[in-house]
Amino acid sequence: MVRAPWIALFAALAAAVPCRAGAQQITEQDLRRALAGYVREHGPAGTQLVDWQAARAISLPLPGRIVAVEKDPSEDWGPRTTLCVRAETGPGKTDSFWVIAQLRFVRTVVVACRNLPIGHRIASGDVRLEVREGAGRDSEYGELEEVVGKEIYRPVSQNACLKHMHVREGRSPGPGDAVIIVAQKEGLRIEAPGRLLEAGKEGDRVRVLNVATGTEVYATVVDRSTVAVSF
Predict the structure, then answer these.
(1) pTM over 0.85
(2) What is the pLDDT of residue 91?
(3) 3-state class of 120 per DSSP?
(4) Which member of 37, 42, 91, 192 has the lowest number of beta carbons within 10 Å of its beta carbon?
């Protein structure tokens, strides 16, 4: 009679502590969390997991625990990307299964607030950040600080994304820069490849090497890539 309360207490404690095997289970929530984490860490910037579907029928929860999620290196990231989930199913035992992840791509890009012509120096009011659908591209700018103060090299339309090909560093031409030497008179235009021998800003007269002839000439800086000579 005296031991009955102790027996009841031990029984209650045993019921409250789950068995070791039951604790090692892969639930749907575990799988989604693992897939979302892998996509966020290894996918293109801004990639989000929308949904997933097993490549073969599986019944959750599964015994074991997820140890890794991997993507086939030969496959590009896309709206439907196949991922391999590796699980530890017992001591020294592993298994794997494939899932098709449905992904959404968003990215932050620098967008022109108005039409930006060639030669325009970009001010803070000329551009803004915007979140857009689609995978990011290395050629696009994603921070305002990357473009403010630079010069437009190719015209940009209003609401268009600014890319590296659109802008150039806001500095004056310097020694070693490749330029085009232009001689123009009464409708006749002659061009030759050149290389600057000294720095100069627009309107300055500088020494330029005519690469075609190997001779040194004096020319006037028109822009970063063009100098003009008279004849």
Answers:
(1) no
(2) 86
(3) coil
(4) 91
